[in-house]
Structure formats: C-alpha cells, structure tokens
Amino acid sequence: MQPQGTKAYLVFLAKLIGFFVLFYYGTIFWIGLATPGGSYVPFISDYLDYVHAWRIALMKGGSFITGLYGYDVVGEPNYTLRVVGGNEVIIAYDCVGYGVVSFWAAFVLAYPTASRRWLWILLGFIAIFIINSVRIGLYLVARNKGWEMPLGIDQHTWFNIIAYGFILGMMYLYDKKQTIANN
DSSP assignment of 66-92, as one string? Predict the structure, then answer.
C-alpha cells in the first residue's frame, strides 16, 4: 500500500470496513426488499433484483461445469439445479458469495491510490463468479458420483478458502500494479 503511516492505514481500514458493511448488509437488506413477505417491494423484485440475476447466472455456470462431466442438467424452480435422474443442488442465498464479492469491492474502493478501480472490481467479480460456478458444478458432480468432500470440509468452506485465497492473490497483484503506476 503506497501511503505510509498509521493515519493512512487507519483511514484505509475504516473505508474497507465501511464499504464492506455497506455492500454486505446492503445486499441482505436488498434481498429483504426483493423477497415476498416482510418489506417486499414488487418493483425491486421485478426490475432491480441483482441477487436473483446472480443466482440464475450461477445456475447456468454450474450447469455448464456439470455438463463437462457428461451429465444432462436441468434448472428447476427455487434455484434448483438437478442432474436428470439424479441429485440436485439448491443455489441458496448462502451460495451466492456476496460476502466475498463485498470484501473484494470494499478493498478496491478503499485502496488509497488506485487507478482503474472499476476494471479491477469487474475482474474480481468475474473471477469469483467462475470459482463459484466451478464449485457448484463440481459439487453436483460429487453428489451424483458419491464423492466425499476432501478432508471432511463442506463445500461452502472450500469455496471460501479458495475464493479468499484468490482474493489475497488479487490484492497482492493490485498492490503491485498500483505501486508501479504511482512510481
């Protein structure tokens, strides 16, 4: 990170936490507005439900990955992805990865000396989407082949380990690019 000193670090940390809280809890709030019951707003549900669009895209990505293993896959109501004649996975809100996406966007926006922020955010979103689609597809394959999860760790934890590991790598690259650009 370019600017040195405790004050610069604390400002960065405050922005990081602030953006993360805004994005993460803002998404939870938005889900509440787009889901029937409670604080439901039909207009948001019909036209601005980005979480629904992300879930549908993840279903298509997971279906593609599962198809690479020779399975025929169908999408069913309630965000269910099923191997024809086999097991299914449900793309629940926990599967979306909005915590990981929120963290990445918060990091890039909080970074003190940044160029091309929106490009980096977009690249991070694409990478997280690909990792998540692969996870969903491989999990569906594993369920249909009877494979156990490695080390007894559930697939959500594996996703978080891999996604945050990837984000740490992207943070390192981002920091290097910004250091080179600002020198």
Answer: HHTTT--EEEETTTEEEETTS-EEE--
